[in-house]
Amino acid sequence: MRAKITYFVLAAVLVVYFVLAGSRGVVLIEQGTPVTVVFGVAVLVIPVIGAWFLWQTTAFARNADRLARELDAEGGLPVDELVRTPGGRIDRDSADAVFARRKAEAEASPQDWRVWFRLAVAYHDARDTPRARKAMQRAIALHDGRPVRS
């Protein structure tokens, strides 16, 4: 729950930033000189790219959460079987062992979104965020019946 609150607060701050930056871009364009118009357009591009990125990230998080709820209803969420250090961090060897099992499951059933979801969690536990995201994107695509990018 804490992560969701943090996400929404940061998203709200970004939206405020986009509005402020966009208004500055409009003011620059209204100046009417060639230099200020070029700068104004350049300043407007930043909020547009940022808003697109925020939208994509929010959609990804909503879709992953939707899959997690469905998997939880089926009783298929991965069980936290990881060994932790006294400080609460995940033991690397433990995460690697779970990851090896999850990867073998995904290789055995490449069209099952559930195994890709669990593999994404294993990647995340192994601190490999880019691969965790790709595995989750694959799980979402398989679940929704969309073509899967390799």
From TrEMBL:
InterPro entries: TPR-like_helical_dom_sf (IPR011990). Keywords: Membrane, Transmembrane, Transmembrane helix. The chain crosses the membrane at residues 35-55. SUPFAM superfamilies: TPR-like. This is Tetratricopeptide repeat protein. It comes from Streptantibioticus cattleyicolor (strain ATCC 35852 / DSM 46488 / JCM 4925 / NBRC 14057 / NRRL 8057).
